[in-house]
Amino acid sequence: MYVTDRRAVRTAARVLVLPAALAALATAAPRAAAHTDLDTASPAADSARAELPPRITLTFSDPMTQKYAKVAVTDPNGKSAATDEPEVSGKEVSLALDPTSPAGRYTVGYRVVSADGHPVSGSYSFTVEAASDSSAPSARETESEGAAVPRAAEEAAGETAADSTDGESSGGESSGGTVPVLIVVGALAAAVAAAVGAYVVRRRRARHGD
C-alpha cells in the first residue's frame, strides 16, 4: 500500500510539473525572441520641414545603452550635421544638429544596442525646404531696375546734347554778330575810296580846264 502511494505521488508530480515547465518556456520564449524596434522618429521619415530642428530624436521599443548608441545625420552635401555625440535617455536617443546647415535632403543612420543586448540599425531621410528670401528682388523689380539704367543714360545723353546745342547756338550768334561789322567796315572803306577817286578826277579836270 505504501509503495503504491509513492508511485502515485511521483506520477502526479510528473503530470503537474511538465505542463508547468512547458508553460513557463512558452511564456519566456516570445520575450527572449522579441526584437527591439524603432517606434517613432522626429523628424519623421520622408517628412518635409520648413527648417532644420535643433535635434533629432529616435524612440525605441526598449531602453538603450549609451555606450553603443551610434547616430549620424548627413546634410545634402554629404557632411555631418551633428554638433555633439548621441544622448540616451531610457528608450530615446537624441542628437543635436547644426541650425546653419543648408536646406535639402537629410539622411539619418543609426545603430544602437538595447539594454538586453539586442542590436538595432537602420536609416531614413527627411527634407528641409529652402526658405523664400523676401529681401531678394523679384523678377519685375529686376526688370524695372534694368530699365532704369538705360533711361538714366538717355536722360544724361539728352542733357549733354542740349548743352552742346546751347553752346553751338551761342557760337552762331557770336559769329553772326562779327559778319555785319565786317560788312560795315568794308562799305565804309569802299565809300572812302570812291570819294578819294572822285576828288582825284575833279582835280585832274580842273587842271585841264586851266
UniProtKB/TrEMBL annotation:
Q: What is this protein called?
A: Copper resistance protein CopC
Q: Which residues cross the membrane?
A: 179-201
Q: Which InterPro entries match?
A: CopC/D (IPR032694), CopC_dom (IPR007348), Cu-Rt/internalin_Ig-like (IPR014755), Ig_E-set (IPR014756)
Gene3D superfamilies for the chain: 2.60.40.1220
Q: What is its main location?
A: other
- Superkingdom of the organism of origin: Bacteria
Does this UniProt record's set of keywords contain Methyltransferase? Answer: no
For this UniProt entry, the molecular function terms from Gene Ontology, in alphabetical order, are:
copper ion binding
Organism of this sequence: Streptomyces acidicola
